[in-house]
Amino acid sequence: MNKKTLTLRLLACLLSTAAAGSALADSASINYRHQFLDEDRMHSDRVKLAYRMDNGLGFEGELKYRTAGDRKDVAFDNTVSSGHELTTSYQYKYSAVSTWQPAIQLDSNENGTTYKFGLKYTRKLSDQFYVAARYRFDALKLNRDRIDEDVPDRGSDNRNTQRYEGWIGYTPAGKFSYEYQYIHFNTDYIRYDNKKSDYEQNLNVKYKLDKSWAPFVEIGDIKVSATDDDRQLRFRVGVQYNFM
User: Fold this and answer.
1) Total Cβ atoms within 10 A of residue 205
2) Is 193 left (phi over 0), alpha (psi -120 to 50) or beta?
3) CA gap 183, 134 in Å, rounded
4) 50, exposed or middle or buried, with CB in 10 Å at 0-12, 13-18, 19+?
5) Which of 2, 44, 81, 227, by CA, is between 20 and 30 Å from 175?
6) Distance separating alpha carbons of residues 13 and 25, to the nearest angstrom
7) Nearest CA to 108 among 78, 137, 143?
8) CA-based angle 216:220:223, to the nearest 5?
9) Measured between alpha carbons, how far is 176 from 191 in angstroms, rounded to an integer?
10) For 50-109, how does the pLDDT look when each residue is reduced to its tens digit (9 = 90+)?
11) What Gene3D superfamilies does its record include (predicted)?
12) Residues with Cβ < 8 Å from 123, sequence gap 6 or more?
């Protein structure tokens, strides 16, 4: 079975699962997002399907695509797969205003698989404000054919990342909602500015058209490379459709 056939079957399976289980599910959605990097000038896309049951157990599947090769400023042409990600999580409502969510994720592409283990806490401060925090441990296991232990600083070896995240959200009465996210990374390899640490920032604005459709835009501040301190903007635009 080739990669294209496998991808199409995975997408069909996830869609049918969400549709069949929607009568029992607390939520089910499909999310499409397009991404462009300001300095790298590269385009990519992602489709995510999410399904959460009344008991708090949830599943997500992501299909990722990118423009092949080094073709800058080109979107939706010569598109190839850049991997897929599967997530299982459990949403535990500790009280009326707070929620805990442990999760396990598998993020795979041709280079290897990253195993992600995380725990997120969300607290509602008022009808309009909420905050959240998450710790996640990411363990990248490279394709054995790509491991080269002679490359310094684990540049071509298995890698571990500790990821600390914080969110603050504002959901006023009306159709718009806003969310700011800050991420700090501690790693065992050179990640940014010749250091084993890094950070990212994201600002997301969502517009609720109706109970089903919600387009959004996101601007991020991310690194350019591992060896200097240059930063770049990451632009994302997409839409989410909620089945229920």
Assistant:
1) 13
2) left
3) 9
4) buried
5) 44
6) 16
7) 143
8) 155
9) 35
10) 999 999 999 999 999 999 887 889 999 889 999 999 999 999 999 999 999 999 999 999
11) monomeric porin ompg (2.40.160.40)
12) 97, 98, 99, 130, 131, 132
Name the pLDDT band for 21 (thresholds 50, 70, 90): very low
The four Cα atoms 72, 194, 164, 204 give a dihedral, to 10 degrees, of -30
**pTM of the predicted model as reported, rounded to 2 decimal places:** 0.86
Instruction: Write phi, then psi, for 156 (nearest 5 degrees).
Output: -140, 55
Give CA–CA dist 31/50, Å, rounded.
8
Query: Can you tell me the distance from the alpha carbon of 35 to that of 45, in angstroms, rounded to the nearest whole number?
Result: 6
Cα separation, 107 vs 203, in Å, equals: 24
Distance CA 168, CA 130 (A): 6
Task: Work out the number of other CB atoms within 10 angstroms of the CB of residue 128.
Answer: 12
The pair of structure tokens assigned to 101 is: 């969510």
**Tell me: the pLDDT tens digits for 218-233?**
999 999 999 999 999 9
* One-letter identity of residue 234: R
Amino acid letter at 144?
R
